[in-house]
Write a structure and sequence with these properties.
This protein has 186 residues and is of the alpha/beta class. 46% of the residues lie in helices and 16% in strands.
Amino acid sequence: WVARLAKLGVGTIQLRAKNLDDAQALATVKEALAAIKGTRTRLVVNDYWHAAIEAKAQDLHLGQEDLADADIKAIRAAGLTLGISTHDDEELATALRAKPDYVALGPIFPTTLKSMRFAPQGIPKITEWKKRVGEIPLVAIGGIKLEHASEIYAAGADSIAVVSDVTQNADPDRRVRAWLGLKDAT
């Protein structure tokens, strides 16, 4: 998927691979970085901050659980940009204390990607969160389809992360091109 999406011109890809040991994580991150080499795609490593540092990645995303165990000083010393997931007020406060480069809010809609202990946030929450994060970019994620994009951007999201709208689409490449066309139109 990483190579496929990079060839299509996707600007940012988050590498999500759960339950890897340290060696597997490092190998996976290195393979993904090799797949985007020579493209304009940025690879955001999800969770595996040790591997991101060792493989000399540029971007890292942490969930709240991983944030608690992460060495923020080492992450910053390595020059990684840092994004953090948020789902409620307490998590937003925790994220903001880490001085992230962006904040992700989700799920906006019901999602089948993973089991969530949080109810869907809804589009109005995007506006509220954007006021609270100010100049920090806000990423909306969770159950979002291309048809929701204009409303989500209008609510204040700076970007949208999607998975199932592409991976579960009958023609994933065409769906990616539609998303990229939307981006070019905004």
